[in-house]
Design goal:
Elements lengths: L8 H4 L5 H10 L5 E2 L11 H12 L12 H15 L5 H4 E4 L1 H13 L5 E6 L5 H7 L3 E6 L10 H6 L5 E6 L12 H13 L3 E5 L24 E6 L12 E4 L2 H15 L4 H13 L1 H24 L12 E2 L10 H12 L1 E2 L1 E2 L11 E4 L4 H17 L1
Parallel strand pairs: 1-10, 3-4, 3-5, 5-6, 6-7
Antiparallel strand pairs: 2-8, 7-8, 9-12, 11-12
Helix pairs in contact: 3-11, 4-11, 6-7, 6-10, 12-14
Length: 387
């Protein structure tokens, strides 16, 4: 039976993630060191786990309201206010989602009509383009460059705006580059957004993981609150990847429409995970700081090590990724990643997985132990000498 003829074209057009390709290869190599997956290597802090257990013991196993328990929405609003100066009404402007991924999906499905263009600064998270395609939109990659610190330049952004442009999908701190944008840079982007009447979906899942710089929430830029859907979650900052919990915050009129998509897609986020998130927001600041300090040590070690090997390397100021150039090796991103894995048992992600702007680079995630990083650095050094 020819099943392909039944599959929607927009689904057939979507390719599987290159990251998962390398992840699956690594799983067949017990001795390999994986620097592929952007997942904290820390266990979820015990007090957060205990809050989920208590919710279960108390019989809190039924559906919650579609946008999430009000207690959690209040905590999210309080957190966004105290950390980033953002103001949202918990009852009307916050939706708890199944990870930040669902938040991105429902935001796009709410905003995008068939043929609408979504501007995506690249290199970018591998899911953005497919999510736009599945929402019926047209992804439009906007390049960023090593020499600019992978910051989105307003003049380049404007070059890609057309009458069909509707949404800018902004993500800083950035995956895969680790780049951040400061307030002045974001203000320049805000001028382009206002000039061309765009809506912005801003993925700020790495907002707590910055090093020596302060994160600026895009919705705090003058004139941008009413144009912005702010998305974040608990996976990265609180090491809660498997809990699948995120949220979006948006003006009430937009949030109301997004709630429809959320309601009919998933009903609500897992109940016990929501109670765990309440505990994380109330008492998890010290956990964030502890993990961030460890990431910073790894960041500095990996950055200095790669530079000493002769790889041109941009210093990341956010997230837990580093994105060195491998152009001086004469290999493509794919060749470098495949050979490094097969010959030295170190898994990295080719930069091309994150868009054409990533060709000539590879992504290394330092969300793993220092011991693993030290072994990986030794093997990478050997590989570079041999080629």
């Amino acid at each position: 039976m020819d099943y392909k003829k039944y599959v929607a074209d927009r689904v057939k057009d979507v390719k599987f993630s290159t990251i998962r390709y390398f992840f699956n290869l690594v799983n067949q190599m017990p001795e390999a060191i994986s620097l592929c997956i952007g997942e904290p290597d820390f266990v979820t802090p015990i007090h957060i786990c205990e809050a989920a257990k208590k919710a279960l013991d108390d019989g809190k196993t039924s559906y919650t309201p579609n946008p999430g328990i009000l207690e959690l929405r209040y905590e999210i609003a309080h957190y966004l206010k105290r950390r980033f100066g953002l103001s949202y009404v918990p009852e009307k402007e916050i939706i708890v989602t199944i990870g930040a991924s669902e938040a991105i999906d429902i935001a796009l499905r709410t905003l995008v009509n068939p043929g609408d263009e979504v501007l995506i600064p690249e290199p970018s998270f591998v899911a953005y383009r497919p999510c736009v395609t599945l929402a019926g939109g047209k992804p439009v990659p906007v390049p960023t460059y090593f020499e600019d610190g992978f910051v989105l330049r307003p003049d380049i952004l404007e070059r890609f705006v057309t009458p069909k442009s509707k949404v800018l999908l902004l993500s800083y701190p950035n995956n895969p580059t680790g780049a951040v944008m400061n307030r002045k840079q974001l203000e320049e982007i805000g001028k382009i957004v206002e000039k061309h009447d765009l809506i912005v979906i801003t993925d700020e899942i790495y907002a707590e993981l910055t090093y020596g710089v302060e994160h600026t929430a895009f919705a705090t830029i003058p004139g941008m609150w009413e144009r912005t859907v702010t998305i974040s979650g608990f996976s990265k900052a609180y090491s809660m990847t498997g809990w699948r919990l995120g949220y979006l915050a948006a003006p009430a009129e937009l949030a109301e429409e997004m709630l429809k998509v959320h309601q009919y897609s998933v009903t609500c986020a897992p109940t016990m995970a929501q109670y765990a998130a309440v505990e994380a927001l109330r008492n998890g600041d010290a956990d964030i700081e502890r993990m961030r300090e460890e990431y910073n040590k790894r960041r500095i070690y990996l950055y200095t090590s790669l530079k000493s090997m002769g790889l041109e390397c941009f210093e990341p100021k956010g997230a837990f990724y580093i994105f060195p150039s491998i152009k001086n090796t004469g290999l493509s991103s794919e060749e470098f990643a495949e050979r490094l894995l097969m010959e030295k048992k170190v898994a990295v992600v080719p930069g091309s997985a994150f868009g054409e702007s990533g060709q000539g680079f590879v992504r290394l995630a330092y969300a793993t132990s220092m011991a693993n990083l030290e072994k990986a650095v030794e093997r990478i050094g050997e590989f570079l000498k041999e080629i």
